[in-house]
Every structure is written in C-alpha cells, then in structure tokens.
C-alpha cells in the first residue's frame, strides 16, 4: 500500500459530444499551467474519450486536441455508411498516432473496448502493475499500436465496422466500442488504483468528465432515418445505461471514494444534438458549455486534486 495521493482522470464516450469534455479540460489545464499528463497518475477513456485520453497521455495540450477534433469530427461523421466512417477513422488515427505503441505514453493509461467474441471487457493498458493475473504474459496495449487500440474503443457497431485485431497474448479477436461495457470506466480505473497499484481508497481522487446531456436531435439524412426507426435513440440509451450503472456500482463498492463527475444537462431545444454531430458551430457551442461546467465546479475540482 502507498500513502501517496493518486489522481485519476476518466473520460466518457459519446462521439462528437466529446468536445464538451474538451471544454472542461481546456480550462482545467489553463488553471494547472501544465499538460494534464503531468497532473494525473492514471487516465482512462472509452470511445471518443479514448482518443482524448491517448492524446493527453502522449503529452498533447488541450488546445492542440481541440484543433484536431474540430477537423477530425466533420471528416469522419459526414460519411454516410459505416464502411466510409470506419475508413475515415482509420486514416485519421494513423495520421495522428502513426506506429507509436503504449511505451510512448507519459502516464499510465486504460483504453476500454469490448471483446465481441467473449462479451468481456478488453482494456488496453500501459503498466504491468495494471494486470490482474497472468503478469508473465502481459504486453502493454496487448502489443498493439495506439491507433489500433483507439479504433477498437471507437468501433460503435452498427454505425462503424467491428474491428478484427491480432494481439500478442489473446490471438485474433473481434472487438467493438467500449461503450457497450463501460461508457464510463470509473469502476475499472478504481480497481486498477486499489488492487493493482495498492492505493488506499481514501487516497484515490477521481475526476470523471462526461459529454453532457442534450435533446437528441438528428443531423443529416442518415441520422434522421436512424432516429425514425429507433436505432439512434436505442444506441444512445445503451451508452447512458452503461454510464449510469458503472457510476452507481463504483459508489456502492467504494463509498469513501473521493470522486467528482461533471456532465451537465442542457434540455433546451437550441442545444439539441447527437453523437454524430458535425456542424462546427454546434461543436464550438458544446465546447463552450464544457467551459461553463468547469466554472461551475472549479472549487470542487481544485479541492479534489488538492490544488490551491
């Protein structure tokens, strides 16, 4: 066991709505005056949260990630078919991450996906201490590249293609979006901190940033069609259920956990959007909502992280 405070950042999935997350983090990084990878000992992310997690873990500043996102989202989300979306995601991920692997990260990372074959979580990790058994065969990120791990976490089937990957110690497997199992991966991060790193519950401080809650509006012909037949609404509900259940279980299992969740609701029609939003004006507005949420919770965030 260690008496050192452990700061953990957990980022939810939610497609384009990840720009809200960036709004919160942008203000936090400005307050801290240094890259977030230097302020958090462990960062977990699912789906869009995994992209942000990976970039933070590599040392990117939030302003840089913001610029990438405002280019990345329209490039990917404008595509109509899952094949085109998947191709665009692959192309952009390879452009950003290249062939870098998990030894490139500057802090410990967890990227959440779902093993479609076994219906079990598949979590790409950096540190052998994060392994729960079978440490002798542990490979950071299952020896996959960062871009492969990120695309697995973002494989929101049936809107994106499933991923087929070859891992060092699990063989060839089929993988889908981590949101199906843990859109909010607080519980998994807590287990790593408590069981793997041996940090007492009272020394663990978790900042969990969601993507906000909005009226789910359809944007574009395909989104309107999917909403009409109910697929889009159903998928959003699956992600919300995953988020809510993991949050509740975390609090029940670890009642003394010092955790703050930021994910405000915006029920006004003018804020209506969905996870495939690609209108840059709406994306910028969501980012501003995130900045406003930071202002609302600033004192609590600074108290959580023990910052003057």
What does this structure look like?
This protein is an alpha/beta fold. The protein is 44% helix and 17% strand. It is built from ten helices and ten strands. It has helices at residues 18-32, 48-57, 62-77, 82-97, 146-153, 179-182, 186-196, 221-228, 231-253, 280-304, and strands spanning 6-11, 42-46, 108-115, 120-125, 163-167, 171-177, 204-209, 213-214, 258-262, 265-266. Strands 1, 2, 3, 4, 5, 6, 7 and 9 form an eight-stranded mixed β-sheet that branches. Strands 8-10 form a two-stranded parallel sheet. A hairpin with a 4-residue loop joins strand 3 (108-115) and strand 4. Helix 3 packs antiparallel against helix 4. The chain is globular and about 50 Å long. The mean pLDDT is 90.
* H/E topology pattern: EHEHHHEEHEEHHEEHHEEH
- Give me the secondary-structure category: alpha/beta
Radius of gyration: 18 Å
How large is the count of helical segments? 10
Distance between the termini: 27 Å
Q: What's the β-strand tally?
A: 10
Average pLDDT, all residues? 90
Strand content: 15-25%
Global morphology = globular
Poorly predicted tracts of residues: none
Mind summarizing the main beta sheet? 8 strands, mixed
Helix content: 40-55%
């Amino acid at each position: 066991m260690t008496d050192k405070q452990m700061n953990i950042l957990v980022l939810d999935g939610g497609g384009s709505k990840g720009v809200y997350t960036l709004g919160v983090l942008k203000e936090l990084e400005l307050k801290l005056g240094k890259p977030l990878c230097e302020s958090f000992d462990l960062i977990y992310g699912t789906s869009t949260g995994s992209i942000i997690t990976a970039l933070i873990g590599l040392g990117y500043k939030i302003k840089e990630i913001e610029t990438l996102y405002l280019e990345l989202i329209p490039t990917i989300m404008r595509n109509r078919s899952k094949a085109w979306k998947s191709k665009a995601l692959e192309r952009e991920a390879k452009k950003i991450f290249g062939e870098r692997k998990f030894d490139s990260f500057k802090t410990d990372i967890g990227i959440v996906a779902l093993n479609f074959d076994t219906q079990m979580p598949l979590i790409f990790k950096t540190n052998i201490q994060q392994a729960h058994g079978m440490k002798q065969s542990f490979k950071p990120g299952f020896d996959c590249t960062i871009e492969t791990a990120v695309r697995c976490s973002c494989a929101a089937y049936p809107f994106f293609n499933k991923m087929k990957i070859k891992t060092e110690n699990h063989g060839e497997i089929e993988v889908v979006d981590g949101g199906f199992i843990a859109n909010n991966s607080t519980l998994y991060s807590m287990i790593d901190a408590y069981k793997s790193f041996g940090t007492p519950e009272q020394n663990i401080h978790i900042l969990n940033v969601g993507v906000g809650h909005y009226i789910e509006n359809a944007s574009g012909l395909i989104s309107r069609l999917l909403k009409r037949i109910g697929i889009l609404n159903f998928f959003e509900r699956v992600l919300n259920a995953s988020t809510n259940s993991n949050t509740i279980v975390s609090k029940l299992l670890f009642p003394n956990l010092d955790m703050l969740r930021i994910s405000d609701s915006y029920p006004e029609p003018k804020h209506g959007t969905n996870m495939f939003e690609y209108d840059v004006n709406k994306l910028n507005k969501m980012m501003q909502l995130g900045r406003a949420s930071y202002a609302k919770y600033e004192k609590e965030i600074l108290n959580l992280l023990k910052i003057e």
